[in-house]
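Box 3.1 A note on notation
Throughout this textbook, protein chains are presented in two layers. The first layer is the amino acid sequence; the second is a C-alpha cell string describing backbone geometry. Keep the layers aligned when reading.
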Amino acid sequence: MRIQPLLLTMAACCLPVAIAATHSRPEPRHVVDPAPASVSAAAASARLPLPERLRQLAPDLDRGVLALALEARSCAVRNGEVGDDSRLAVIDYSQPSTRPRLWVFDVARDRLLFREHVAHGQGSGENVPTRFSNRHSSHATSLGLFRTAETYTGGNGYSLRMDGLDPGFNDNARARAIVMHGADYVNPQAAASRGRLGRSHGCPAVRRQVAKVVIDALKQRQLVFAYANDADWLRSARSFACDGRSARQILAAARGDALPAGGAMVAIAAP
C-alpha cells in the first residue's frame, strides 16, 4: 500500500521535542468553565465597544494584540471566509511559554471560554519565540490568521487541521501539517522548574487534558490568530489590512500610543 506523503509530513511535523512531562500531581486547570466563569454581555455592559467588553474578560491580554486579532476577524467575516458568529482564539507569542498565552473567545456571546498554555515550535526559540517561518522542515511556528477545518485522530491523538489565511506567512500550514493537538510536554509544572514548555515541530500544542474540549470549541471554520513582535509580519501581513490601516496604527490606537515621526515600524512592547 502506498503511503501518502502528506501523512508522513503530518506525523513528522508535530512530533514533540520533548521536555519530559511529570505527573506526580494534577496540573492546574486553566479552562474557564462556560457556565459559571464566563461573563455575559449584560454583565460586561453591552454599551461598551466589543474590544473593551472582551478586554474585561481577558485583562492580561494585551489590548493591542486583541485589537489586531479582532480586526483580522472582521476582515475574514467581510471577505466571506468565516461567519459573523465565528469563535476566535488568540495566541500571544510575545509572551513566554511558561504563561498561559492562549485565549479562546465566543465573540458573538461575549464569553471567554478558555485560557491555556500553548507550545511553540522548536525552530522558533526557547521560552519566548523569536523566529517564525512558513517553510517546510523549519520546525518553527507560523504567525497570522488561521481558519480551522476538520478534526482527525492521528499519532498525537485528537487533532484539528488549520488553513493559513496570510499568504507568505502561514499559507503552508496544511501542507506542513500544522495542527492543534494535545501533548504531554505541554506541562506547566515541568515548565516552571525547567524554564519553558516542551516544544513542537511548529504546531500550537495544548495540554492533553484539555485538548478535546478546546478543539471541539474551535473546529469547523473558526479562527486562530497567532501574534508576535515580528516586524516583517506586522508590516506585510494582509489578514488585518482590509480597511487600509497598518498594524502599527491598529496597535497604537488600541494602546493609546503616539505614532513615531515618519510612521516607521517599531518593535512593539508587551504590556
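The two ends are 54 Å apart (CA to CA). The chain has one domain: 5-263.
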